[in-house]
Every structure is written in C-alpha cells, then in structure tokens.
User: Fold these one by one.
Assistant:
Number 1:
Amino acid sequence: MRHFHISRIKINNIQSIKWIDFVNEACTQDNNLTRYDDQGHPFILEWMKGNILSPDLALFKKELIEFALSELTISELTFLKANPQSACSEVFLMSSLPHLEKGPTVADWDAISDAIKTSITHFYITDLSVYGEALKPLLNDVHFFAKIKSNNGEPQGFILFSVTPSLPFGDVKVVNFFVKPNLNLEKMLMSLVTKILPLTKRIFLFVRPTNQSAIKM
C-alpha cells in the first residue's frame, strides 16, 4: 500500500505555490483505507488520481456503471419530475424530451427512466478521447475518483472530484457524489477529500437540489 505523503514542498512556502502544482506534487497516485460506521461495521475506501483521459478513470466508470445506473437514474428522475423544463438543457435528461411533449402528468415515466439509463450508460462507457480538441481545456485538471465498499467488496458509493488550474488555493470541485440511501455514509466518503488534500479550504458540491441527503451533509 502506498500512503499519502507530501513531497518536495515546504509548508512554510505554501502561499507561493499554485494549488494545481501542489496537488500534483503532494498526492500519491492511489491508496486505500478502512473506516468504521457508528455500528462498528468496516468500510473500505479506495481512490486513484489521474486526468480526464486516464485509463484508470475509464475503468473506474465502467466498473461502477451498474451502481451508477440504479442510483443516478433515481436521482435524475426525482429532479426531472420536480423540474420538467430541465429536459431542454440537461445532459442526462435531454433524451426524455420527446416523452414530455404532452406534459409531465401524462408522460410515460417508465420510458423516461429507460431513456435516462441509456444516456447514463453512454456517458460511463464512452471513450472521451473521441472528443479531441474539445477536451484540451480539461487536460490539465487533476481528477480523483474513489469508491466506498462494504467488507464483502460491494460498492456503497462513489465520488469524483477535481482541481483545475483556475481554482484558488484550497478549492475543490466535487462533480459526482452518490451513496446508497439509509447507510449514513455521506460524511465518511466526503471526508476523503480532506484526507487526500488536507489543505482543502472549500468544497463545491455539484448536486441536484432534490438530493436532500447530500445537501443536508
């Protein structure tokens, strides 16, 4: 196991260092640890670091696709029912627009669910390198991708967060965050951000306003 370390950076010179450079220098590529919930049940946290075209990130997404389909589809459906106009602009929801032409009250929500699942599947299995030049602005971003598993290896949640060159020192963007309901593992998983990046000052969490468990956290 490779442990978290800070290398070649002196803390007393930290203010003269760009946040993105610190993140690249200070973090190992991957790691894991075990934590326990309030009932004493063990959970395994595993994470890796890479860029948007990292093969490890692509594999991570493919491995979690079944979990993402079940959890993310529920989240997106909940948001869409509360905000049907979002089908006009939201990536995962645009495929549902034809099913909403006569209004949400008479819509076929099973068909909409299937359409959302197709969009999510496409996102998780697509080789992002096909987007070529469009990805250039994102290639210098540092991405962290992590999952939390029960002791038997079953995924219970995952998080994707990143640091971009434009972010002020200490800022982190969480772009995906999902935990199975009723397990109270949100704080355990989110604490991984400050475990990996202990100089984090602010975390920007991008979640749907209908995702109450994440908002309450």
Note: Residues 1-11 have pLDDT under 50 and may be disordered.
Number 2:
Amino acid sequence: MASAVGQYFQNIRESAASIFEGLTITLSHLVRKPVTIQYPDKTPRPISEMMPERSRSWLKVEMDTCTACLMCETSCPIDCIKITVAKDSPKGKAMSQFDIDMAKCMYCGLCTEPCPTGAIHFIPEFERAAYSLEEMISHFVPEGDYVVPYKPPKKDKGDEAGAAAEEKPEPVPAVKQVESPELATATEKAGEPAVQDIPDKETLH
C-alpha cells in the first residue's frame, strides 16, 4: 500500500517537472522582444525597403534601354514572356507587344542574365494580389502603341585598339639551360644531365 502511494506521488512530481520543462522556452519568450512582423498593418517601414538586395520578386522592363534582342523570351523555360516586333510599323522596326505573365513565372532569373543592357530585372515589390489571372500579366507596351528598340552606341575603332593593347600580356622572359656544378654529382648518379634554368641576361635589362 505504501509503495503504491509513493509511486502515485512520484508520478505527479515527474509530470509537473515535465510540464515545467516544456514551458521553459515558452515562458522565456514573455520577456523577449518580439521578432514577428505584423504584416501588413504594423511594419516599421515599407516592405519594399526591407527586401534583400538580390531578392526575386517582380519583373520590370526598362523599355528605354530594351534592344528587342528577344534573349529574355528565348531564355524563359516556361514561355511566360511574349515579345512581338513589327517591322512595318509607323515608327519602323518597333515592339508592339512586351508582356510578362507573372502568374506563370517561376522567378528563376534566367531572363535577366543574357540581357545585354540589363533592361529586364527584378524589383523589390511583390504586393500585387489580383482577382484574376489576366491581371497578373504586365503589359510594358501600351495597346496600339509601338516602342522603338534601343540602339547601343558603337565603339570607335581607336578605343577598341587601345583596349586590346592594354589587355595584351607582357612577354615572358626567356630562359636558358646551363650546367650546374653543384648538381653534377647528384644528377650523374641518377643518370640525368646536370642543368639549371636561369633567366637570360638580355631579358633582365
């Protein structure tokens, strides 16, 4: 009987200790500064300013620097970029369509890497909830309008020649082989000629 009563109270002590141990971490957070951000109504500053520098959120195209090279469209693995170039538009060769379907985009960033001017890039913005998939399509060319592609300035031949001259590597000093008395004994035992590489005197001046 005594042993049963003792076991009963021991179980109570073990249960209380287990509960207290489990609540230790919970109770410690009562005196800590909260780290959870109450989004979106209680943020210290706009979310766009709190996003990491290299975050992949929403794609934007700077049409004033787009060359219509179609590299971003061909690099997209799921075909969410649609570009139409009209050669007989009132403005000549111009883009009549540049759409990005962000509902299909998987934010891989493959479209931003081959762009020669960096016209297409991610921006720290993601708060664009919509009620339909059509609203998730970004139209960078207004309907019925045309955007003339950007033409990068050509480099002068003199500048290219100067850049090539700067990148030309310096000549490597020539070396010649001479017999070394110090190495004669060791190399003759090994059956190899006693030679040593030293820089040519003419290349040192």
Note: The mean pLDDT is 81.
